[in-house]
Amino acid sequence: MTTPREAAFRVAVLDTLSKRVYAALAEARKVAEPLFAASRVEGTKQIEVALPSGAQVGTVSIKAGADTVTMDDDALMEWVEANAPTEIETTVSAAALSRPDVVAYVRRFHPTLMVKQVRPAYKTLIVKQLNDDGEFVDTASGELVKVADKVKGEPTGAFMLTFERARDGRANGRDQIAAAWADGELSLADLLTVAIESAPGGEQ
Hints:
The protein is of the alpha+beta class. The protein has two domains: about 5-60 and about 155-200, no CATH class; about 65-150, no CATH class. The protein is about 45% helix and about 20% strand. A hairpin with a 6-residue loop joins strand 6 and strand 7 (about 145). The longest helix has about 40 residues, at about 5-40. The relative contact order is 0.18.
């Protein structure tokens, strides 16, 4: 039967080690992301995660860089007015927000504050259709219409880790890693060294 003293010791040790593991994980991600970014630039989208035995336990999917889209609102407005006028709405200019008048009366008392804009939902739809040159296809004419400048961002190294699912009598990726550790195939000592050395004392 576990004594209170033994239970207290177990809690203290596991609490300490768990903080070192989280610190090691943070350091591992910090080191990995620049490497993943370089790999993505070279064309690598996924990296297999395997145990020393060769068994695959997961996959790292490296995210592409985020695109930066700078809309040419005048060009977009011109095209929408000519081809999809129902997707234009008249709204109150932001300048009207500093006036004391109720928005419902702005059109009557301050018509110069009224502006036209492409409906946000329709603009979002157009943005999704843009090619790398900031153009989309006019489905009626088949012509390309340029309404934006689009710059592809460089990969940052951001990634998603997916573990193998249990199948064909094999355990899932997480359980395989745990079993490899329990069997001595994996040692956590090297993986935790950086975190332990960076925290010689005190709570992490």
